[in-house]
Amino acid sequence: MNKMQQRLLHPSKATRQDRFGKTISLICIGFIMILTVSIIGFIAIHGLATFFENHVSVMQFIFSSNWNPGQLGKNGQPQVGAFAMIVASFAVTLLAAILATPFAIAVALYMTELAPKRGAKMLQPVIELLVGIPSVVYGFIGLVVIVPAIRSVFGGTGFGILAGSIVLFVMILPTITSLTIDSLQQVPDHYRKASLALGATKWQTIYKVILRAALPGILTAIVFGMARAFGEALAVQMVIGNAALTPTSLTSPTATLTSQLTSQMGDTIMGTLPNNALWSLALVLLIMSVIFNLLIKVVGKRGEMKK
Amino acid sequence: MTTNETVITTKDVRLYYGEHEALHGINLDFQKSQITALIGPSGCGKSTYLRCLNRMNDLIHDVTITGSFKIDGHDIYRPQQDVVSLRKKVGMVFQQPNPFPFSVYDNVAYGLRVQGIKDKKIISQKVEESLKQAAVWDEVKDDLTKNALSFSGGQQQRICIARLLAVKPDVILLDEPTSALDPISSAKIEEMLLQIKDQYTIIIVTHSMQQASRISDKTAFMLNGDLVEYGDTKKIFLNPEQEATSDYLNGKFG
Ligand SMILES: Nc1ncnc2c1ncn2[C@@H]1O[C@H](COP(=O)(O)OP(=O)(O)OP(=O)(O)O)[C@@H](O)[C@H]1O
Ligand SMILES: [Mg+2]
């Protein structure tokens, strides 16, 4: 009797294991939450210091293209204008996405609709390979092949937005392609059958039904690709030219938010304005990545409602 | 109007999925302005046979079809046959309602747009006409821009039928069109089929004996890939010649 009571009143081994597992995962989650919050807090504190401690105006930061945080300008204000970097970042991102999207859709259609067996066999490994190549290799190829090619065609140094976009195009192509493939595969087969049974050709079925039904997924894929392009630093830094100048053409040397960060971060001292200014660039990157994430959520939601 | 003219003639139809022979030589004819019901136990080859008539079996890998299929005197498997135009002429309604995830209007307009019709007036007119013919107009007329998937299964199926009627096929194949629907929706579809049958040649696969007896003029009973019996629906139901047919109708198997 006593033994029985004891057994019932004490937690069993399974319960203890259960609790133990729960505790461990809670600790891990807590740790990651703290980490995330502190990264955001850290970036925000340093990034905002430019505005609150060094009294640079936000307007100037966004719309001025004088980037020389170490020196005072003619008006006695520090020169912290990130316009050039913001423009260049958006330019390479958009251009890379515009270049990559048609290719990604074409490859994805080939692999899902036109030649699923052969296409998947040949192209799947290629896509996986492209994902696995480190960005420094892409940058290196860009530097050795693309920059000289642009130089000989368009003149100038060859460094600039065009070179950056081309390198990013190759880098985000697999991302957009594989996500587009996923969304095409999710289009139920009965849409295809319904369309063909109504006397539509294969192409009509593809562009009037399949692409339309998969559109939210494809848009999500593009935004994912853009997020990747916007955040890529190393490869871009190697081909963009790294001059904090507003780009005057696609082939003039400039700098993106990320390339400016990677190329300058070793040269500044923590707590000084030049260092704070770099943190402000990082803050812009963080905000943009939040916006990309929201965009993906919104587009994805719209897709769900349609199904 | 000439009724009872034979529109479809099929002779010695054999179909192989790989090595497996699923149809063992079927001879069947279908007449204009009549509804023919295909009945038989599950797996006997009704859907398989039906898909031969609009060449949807072409989409399935490793299918071999022999025999002769003539629609309006033309062999639909002749090399120069354009499958796309065949499917405009021979439409199909599937077991599961399968509207596109677009508006009701875009669904019904789809077949017209695919044919290159751009005139908005003509399209609107045909959309309305087809939805009325499919007996679903009153239920969707205020929501033509709403996603077709937001309607009930029965409404979706009638939208699919409207989508098909809009392209004015000569032949309508229906593969268990009401098996996923409630009795009221089914009754609406049956009534609608009786309404429109004069202008079409209709073939319907069904597992419901009541449905077959209510709406069809002719009935074909299939078993294990063979055609067992074919004739006037009344005759088949009241006085079948084959023992297998009467056993099936009496629910002894199936
Ligand atoms: N795509 C396919 N590949 C291989 N075999 C198939 C395929 N489709 C059908 N079969 C086979 O062909 C035979 C006939 O199938 P079918 O679908 O035509 O029967 P059915 O009479 O329509 O049955 P149900 O009433 O269940 O719909 C079955 O033995 C089935 O397993
Ligand atoms: Mg079937």
UniProtKB/TrEMBL annotation, chain A:
**Matches recorded under Gene3D superfamilies:** MetI-like
> Sorted alphabetically, which InterPro entries does this protein's record hold?
MetI-like, MetI-like_sf, Phosphate_PstC, Phosphate_Transport_Permease
> What SUPFAM superfamilies does the record tag this protein with?
MetI-like
Q: Which CDD domains match?
A: TM_PBP2
Q: Name one GO molecular function term.
A: phosphate transmembrane transporter activity
Q: Which Pfam families match?
A: BPD_transp_1
Enumerate the Gene Ontology biological process terms.
phosphate ion transport
Where exactly are the transmembrane stretches of this chain?
Answer: 20-45, 82-109, 129-150, 156-176, 209-230, 277-296
Q: Which residues form the ABC transmembrane type-1 domain?
A: 86-296
Residue ranges the record marks as coiled coil: none
- The organism's place on the tree of life at top rank: Bacteria
- Topology within the bilayer: Multi-pass membrane protein
GO CC terms: plasma membrane
Q: Which family does it belong to?
A: Belongs to the binding-protein-dependent transport system permease family. CysTW subfamily.
Instruction: Provide the protein name.
Output: Phosphate transport system permease protein
